[in-house]
Design brief:
This protein is of the alpha/beta class. Helix content is 30%, strand content 24%. The protein has 2 domains: 31-37 and 54-160, no CATH class; 174-370, Vaccinia Virus protein VP39 (Rossmann fold, 3-Layer(aba) Sandwich).
Length: 371
């Protein structure tokens, strides 16, 4: 893959400083990813490893090594014809339990199912770079990957390893596939796009899809999770996408300007640990999705459009998210459509106390256009 140019603006919300806009040309990696994001918190004691945020064990202290190594991994997997559909955590658990203690037999086992693998599965040079960047870690006589790789629309996307327990985990799964399909359908009928935003971009899957189908558009990938920004940058580089900018932002608060297309796939579960990649906030997890909707309607250009894929908890026949949507639209001049595309997702979550009065969680697509 040849180098491409990418603009990156990084805005810190924890330790504010003047915004720095950088144009770089190095494996399509943003310079902040090469140099590494600012490490929050105290310096480690002697002998301790310093991770990018101190919470993702084994990811290492050199994001430049990480970026180069993971980009090389994605290129290698692509050449090998790698493809893997990432499933729900419950399905993943069932499959690997059925597999027992068996080691990985192929690349899909190692980087899709996250099974222990023999280093001979990779070329010596690639393994050495992954080891140096701490993308892999020892597991008895074998090795485990600290990332997984999923395939979507002909491209590969790096995301967090299984199980996704860390606070700054970056999720990819069936919701990502449904969201991307909804965005692709919308793009087939949408007017020309000049400036688009993917709010809470995670791996960047939807934003990269928009950038690839609209190469002249300025596509902004925003997330509050710095690990997500790293993964999105690597995924954009591996896909040879040049027309994206990557921002650290809480919804749209730190993003400049207005947009003619805004998409989002926000977390919508009620997570007891309130992990950012999973927790949707109050009102059975609908709070964040409604905040995004309100912010998007305020930042769309006239006749601009948007799409939100999220979960809608239903209690005693009432769609709690839709009730909130109607309240938000009462304050804005806009048209909208609401489609329940799957009536029952993540049924196992109903066992949690927060869902005591919820009978099901539906997957929904909300499309809207500003008047």
């Amino acid at each position: 893959m040849g180098p491409v140019r990418m603009q990156v603006k990084r805005i810190s919300m924890i330790r504010p400083f003047a915004a720095e806009e950088i144009t770089c040309c190095f494996w399509a990696m943003p310079r902040w990813l090469q140099a590494g994001p600012a490490v929050q918190g105290a310096e480690p004691r002697a002998g301790e490893r310093k991770s990018c945020r101190g919470s993702l064990t084994g990811m290492g202290n050199q994001p430049s090594d990480f970026g180069r190594a993971v980009t090389a991994l994605l290129e290698y997997l692509s050449r090998q014809g790698y493809a893997f559909v990432t499933v729900t955590p419950s399905t993943h658990a069932r499959v690997i339990e059925r597999r027992g203690d068996n080691a990985a037999k192929n690349l899909r086992d190692a980087f899709g199912w996250n099974l222990p693998f023999d280093k001979d599965l990779l070329s010596p040079d690639l393994f050495a770079s992954l080891y140096a960047a701490e993308v892999v870690r020892p597991n008895n006589a074998l090795w485990l990957s600290n990332v997984r790789v999923a395939s979507l629309n002909g491209h590969l996307f790096v995301h967090s390893a299984y199980p996704t327990r860390e606070e700054d985990a970056v999720f990819f799964g069936p919701d990502t596939y449904r969201f991307s399909s909804a965005v692709l359908r919308r793009l087939r009928t949408a007017e020309p796009i000049t400036r688009a935003a993917d709010i809470g971009c995670g791996t960047g899957a939807a934003g990269i899809l928009i950038a690839r189908t609209h190469p002249k558009a300025d596509v902004v990938l925003g997330d509050i999770n710095e690990r997500a920004l790293q993964f999105a940058a690597v995924n954009a580089a591996a896909a040879n996408i040049a027309n994206v900018s990557i921002h650290h932002s809480d919804i749209l608060a730190q993003l400049p300007g207005d947009f003619d297309f805004i998409v989002a796939n926000p977390p919508y579960m009620v997570d007891a640990a309130q992990r950012a990649y999973r927790h949707g906030g109050a009102d059975q997890g609908t709070e964040l999705s409604l905040r995004i909707l309100d912010a998007a309607l305020g930042r769309l250009l006239p006749n601009g459009s948007g799409l939100i894929y999220t979960g809608a908890p239903v209690s005693d026949g009432e769609d709690i998210f839709r009730t909130g949507v109607e309240r938000v639209f009462s304050k804005h001049r806009a048209t909208w459509t609401y489609d329940e595309i799957d009536p029952d997702v993540f049924g196992e979550e109903l066992d949690q106390p927060a869902y005591l009065n919820v009978e099901r969680i539906a997957a929904v697509v909300l499309e809207f256009r500003k008047g």
